[in-house]
Amino acid sequence: AAVNSCLTCHQDAHSLNYKYSPHAQLFQAEGILPRPSSKSVTCATCHLPRHKFERPDGTTWVGVNHNNTFTLKPRDRMVKDVCMNCHGLEFSYNSIFDDELVKANFNKPPTQDLETLKMIRVLEKKRSNNS
């Protein structure tokens, strides 16, 4: 779905701030409609994600998850199914759990460093030193 279609109903800060995001800049630079390439990010990229499915004969097909609330709660579901298609784990988690960054539609890189991720790095360092 094109962004303007979404904005006819969605007037929240996150939606309205899309035009200031790096995702919007990528989309505008490509300018391909109706179906942008995998490099373009629109509302549908995140809120109507595509999934690869396998048929019984082993062939695959790509389908869209039309449940647009599927990736909203819990937030980490979006990280796994959407964000990490392009971004790393830490970047994704630090972004999706920053309420102001979500509101601003991810207009800049995350600045927070989640405590959980810090703990994981410390534990991983200890573990690798013991091997």
From TrEMBL:
Domain of life from the UniProt record: Bacteria
SUPFAM superfamilies found in the cross-reference section: Multiheme cytochromes (SSF48695)
Name of protein: Uncharacterized protein
Organism name: Symploca sp. SIO1C4
Lineage summary: Bacteria, Bacillati, Cyanobacteriota, Cyanophyceae, Coleofasciculales
